[in-house]
Amino acid sequence: MSKVTLTVLLMDAPYESENLTTAFRILDVAARRGYNLNVFAYEGAAGLAFARQAPHPNPVHGKNLAEENHPTTKDQVLALIAHTEKNGGKVDWVNCGMCVDERGVNEFAPGTRRGSPADFHASTEASDNVLVIPTK
Amino acid sequence: MAKKTLNIVESAYRAVIEEQDDTIMWLLAAMQGAGADHTVVLRGNAVNYAVTGQGVPGLQVGDWKQTQAPKMDRDVLDLIEKRKIPVYVVEEDLAERGIERSELVSGVTPVSRKALPGLFAKHAIVSHW
Q1: How many CB pairs under 8 A join A and B?
Q2: A48-91, pLDDT tens digit by residue?
Q3: How far apart are CA B45 and CA B94, in angstroms?
Q4: Chain B interface, mutation test: which of A17, A20, A21, most B Cβ atoms within 10 Å?
Q5: Closest CA to A73 of B19, B23, B14
Q6: DSSP SS3 for A95
Q7: Tens digit of each residue's pLDDT (9 = 90 or more) over B58-113
Q8: Domains and their CATH numbers in chain A
Q9: Best residue in B11, B18, B82 to probe A by mutation, most A CBs within 10 Å?
């Protein structure tokens, strides 16, 4: 049986929705199975792989930087890419070019790239299945 | 003296994994520390924040693992005990969800929908989140 290829479109901006947590849980399972993953990061999701995201301490929680250990979606993207490759799959993480320009988030985590709706179309055509997680 | 502000929190569990807290309750706690005078009403799905003993495993993606997953009941207690922010929960919203008062963290005050206008009248500002 040939390797499974999935395409996932994300739209929500980081730190604003539970949709992305659900998406990363699904992507993690797919990565563990060694699937090939095409992710099109559209609209707010174009900020997921922004390289300059940084964790912070949280005085309201009474925790310093290490204690708070605040997650960044950039690290989740990097972990997804590494884990997929470790299990024999590959990730093509495409950041919508116009979306990143609008938001000024055009410094990407390594292993992700700039792209366009044409990339989403191409990956949709080449995938076994497609999951769109839209902003509502 | 700070203006008394009533905050109706209705949006629930939005981005709490990524932020490791509820962003509105966090904001109110931070403002209270800066001298604000806040009161909170949990309504709708947000009444579930007051249910004791809740929690969720942190997110894991490959070898990356979240270590500080949010605990909303702990954060409600923090508002009440540490920030001295009164926290009300709407009784009818609890009942609709089958949540008993015995399941709530200590210190929250049930309030009926009929009593809310009276609560509004006691505050200079009412914010609906």
Answers
A1: 69
A2: 999 999 999 999 999 999 999 999 999 999 999 999 999 999 99
A3: 9
A4: A21
A5: B19
A6: strand
A7: 999 999 999 999 999 999 999 999 999 999 999 999 999 999 999 999 999 999 99
A8: 5-133 (3.40.1260.10)
A9: B18
Domain that holds residue B86: 4-128
Beta-strand (E) ranges in chain B? Answer: 4-9, 37-42, 60-61, 64-65, 87-90, 109-111, 125-128
Domain holding B122: CATH number? 3.40.1260.10
Q: What is the pTM of this model?
A: 0.90
- In the block, residue with structure tokens 């004791």: B52
Contacts of B44 (CB under 8 A, 6+ apart): B10, B12, B90, B93
**Who contacts B41 (Cβ-Cβ below 8 Å, separation ≥6)?**
B6, B7, B8, B9, B87, B88, B89, B90, B111, B116, B119
Residue A50: helix, strand or coil by DSSP?
strand
Report d(CA A130, CA A117) in Å as an integer: 14
B3 class by beta-carbon count within 10 Å (0-12 exposed, 13-18 middle, 19+ buried): exposed
